[in-house]
Amino acid sequence: MSEDANQIRQVPERCLQCIAFNRVLLIRETADGGADLATALQPLGLQVHVLASGSSLAQLDEFDYEFVLWDTHLPAAEETAAIRHLLRQCPRLPIIVLTNDAHAETAIELVKAGAHDLLARPFQISSLRLVVQRALHTRRLLCAALLIPGVPAAQVSPVKLVGRSQPMQEVFKRIGLLALRDESVLILGETGTGKELVARTIHRHGERSDRPFLAINCAAIPENLLESELFGHEKGAFTGASQRRLGAFECAQGGTLFLDEIGDMSLPLQAKILRVLQQREIHRLGGNETIAVDVRVLTATNKTLANAIHNGAFREDLYYRLNVVSIRLPALREHREDIPELVEYFLDRYTLPGSPRPAVDAAAVWKLQNHHWPGNIRELENTIRRALVTANGQAMMERDVVLGEPASCSRIGAMAQCAHCQLAQPNNQSDASHGVDTDREPELEIQLNSALQQWFAHQARSPSPAGPDTSARLEAMLLDAALKFTHGNQVKAARLLGISRSTLRQRLSKRLPQV
Fold first, then answer.
1. What's CA 416's distance to the chain center, in Å?
2. Which of 135, 73, 81, 142 is nearest to 112 (CA)?
3. Could you tell me where the beta strands, DSSP code E, fall in 334-448?
4. Rounded to an integer, what distance in angstroms lies between the CA atom of residue 250 and that of residue 227?
5. Is 429 exposed, middle or buried (0-12, 13-18, 19+ CB in 10 A)?
6. Strands 185-188 vs 117-120: parallel, antiparallel or unpaired
7. Residue 266 φ/ψ region, left for φ over 0, alpha for ψ in the -120 to 50 degree band, beta for the rest
8. CA distance 277 to 293
């Protein structure tokens, strides 16, 4: 076994050691002091080791500590340079900066340097513990991510179709059936579902793959320019036509022309497209020459063309010419099970070259899977790119996922409220009306997750087997905690747990003794 392979094999063991030791590195100007911070972190089971900022960090290993508390009074430039140097050596080691300088410029430079979090003095002990718990959560996600390394960004295809769900598998099968045929294909689907990507995939797997692929968005080009864009023009054909210009049909000769948003094309231009498809020839604007064209035409629309035909906005004969075969792309809300894979793909694609790909918090994935996605995959892609900025190259947490307003769901259908909106505000009442402090929910989730991580760490380093099924033991603890909170009232306990009373009683009859 090679040395590199041996290091990879040892990663899981070292990650468990990192979790087990619960060691924190405190960097100060001098190696003394820090007792107040050690006392504050003691309830979290953390041991604080102090190191002078001038000491050599060359031998520091990123698995020696859970995270770093940076508590120096260096000039801003020196501090950011030192943090960058440390992160080059230990890229997965979160750094929390305790600072006396709360100016925006300083904070921006520290975050740019790679600081995981900032805490301005003076601060409350509770604030310090909350920031530390976030760092612990991030650290353990980063360690877990090493067990299944991500694909380096340089090896990721620029664009590709992603999805293992049944709806996407049907799309893949249809592409495979149509790729080697030369028929026209109408691609249907909402905005942002990836219609152009499907067209490019059909072209790439077809017999014309070595010839040009051109895409024209019919809705993005003014009507008076679209005809010239498609068919070209001769010199002097109109004011400003100073020379001959070839159109998309000629430029795509032998290849594929993709007409996106074909439903927005005017009726006169539709007639000319129909003639091209029937006669396989064009005339440039202002010219008399007949030019034969050999182009496969793929089209797409987010409109219901049957309604457009009924309203006289789309030619029925052109519809049947274009719709020899159709592919319908599902909306993202119809294949939510593909969201985790899409998240991994976009993280691989947009992580900066040479940087480690961020790990992903399970709560962040849950939040993404429960959004309605009116903008579909394009909206998800933009959400991940935005989250990468705030994640600062480390773990992508739930707070990094900023979603659009639920009210935007009304754009995609006639329903006044989608299921996501109804879940967000049950019975049209906010949590505030019931006196629930929703601002504390993320903090409580972090505390609960931290406690679970400590439990798993204890199990991992235990010399004896874990005994009964861990999930059953945790469930038993959860049931007992709910009954204790409700003073034994099973109806209230079941309501707290989100289950029926009969389910609660059934689980109580099978539960294991509390540990």
1. 27
2. 81
3. none
4. 13
5. exposed
6. unpaired
7. beta
8. 10
Angle, alpha carbons 377-382-385 (nearest 5°):
125
Give me the residue label for tokens 């993320």: 442
Cβ neighbours for 108, distance < 8 A, ≥ 6 positions apart: none
What are 87's two structure tokens? Answer: 């992160």
Greater confidence (354 vs 372) lies with 372
Tens of pLDDT along 303-319? 999 999 999 999 999 99
From the list 138, 27, 139, 23, the residue with the least C-alpha distance to 82 is 27
**CA distances, 442 to each of 84, 103, 119, 187 (Å):** 29, 26, 18, 42
Q: How confident is the model at residue 164 (pLDDT cuts 50, 70, 90)?
A: confident
- Separation CA 82–CA 98 (nearest Å): 14
What is the CA 411 to chain-centroid distance, rounded? 22
Q: Which two tokens stand for residue 270?
A: 């539709």
In this prediction, residue 32 has a pLDDT band, given cuts at 50, 70 and 90, of confident
pTM for the whole thing? 0.61
The residues pairing with 120 across neighbouring beta strands, listed in sequence order, are 99
171: helix, coil or strand?
Answer: helix
| Distance between first and last Cα of the chain | 42
Pairing type for strands 23-28 and 47-52 reads parallel
Question: Quick one: which of 411, 413, 409 has its CA closest to 371?
Answer: 409
Q: How far is CA 448 from CA 137, 143, 443, 444, 478, in A?
A: 11, 19, 9, 6, 12
Measured distance CA(331)–CA(31) in Å, rounded: 58
DSSP annotation string for 67-132: EEEE-----HHHHHHHHHHHHHH-TT--EEEEES---HHHHHHHHHHT-SEEEESS--HHHHHHHH
Closest residue by Cα to residue 186 from 34, 335, 296, 344: 296
**What's the one-letter identity of residue 274?**
L
CA 129 to chain centre: 28
Task: Report DSSP letters for 240-293, one per residue.
Answer: T--S-EE-HHHHTTTSEEEEETGGGS-HHHHHHHHHHHHH-EE--BT----EE-
Q: How many whole angstroms separate alpha carbon 122 and alpha carbon 371?
A: 38
**Token pair of 231 as six digits:** 């068919």
The pLDDT, as a whole number, for residue 3 is 39
Which DSSP string do the residues of 293-362 spell out, in sequence order? Answer: ---EEEEEESS-HHHHHHTTSS-HHHHHHHTTEEEEPPPGGG-GGGHHHHHHHHHHHHSPTTSPPPPB-H
